[in-house]
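Chapter summary example.
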Amino acid sequence: MDKANLERLLTRGMDNALLRFGLGKALLDEGDAAAAAQHLHACLAFDQDYSAAWKLLGKALLSQGSADDARNAWQQGIAAAQRKGDKQAEKEMQVFLRKLDK
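The structure predicted for these 102 residues follows.
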């Protein structure tokens, strides 16, 4: 579903983690990291264990120059991924943290 359709659903009152994640991803793909971060934060308000949202939130924050906030998001995302058993997301965010430390 494209960003316009997702925004229409949100305008109509539908609001959930998946919708906010989709909007966050679409906006990040378009280069609007600030708006993406807002939607990803809203996604995480619905589900703190949404590891993919933590991963994208870290990317959005880093692209805005907020390395410390990105690190925090990825650390929380790793914890969420561990709780869910999401090994792939956990590994990806660990790589992002290592790159950030270089």
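To summarize the output: The chain has six helices and no strands.
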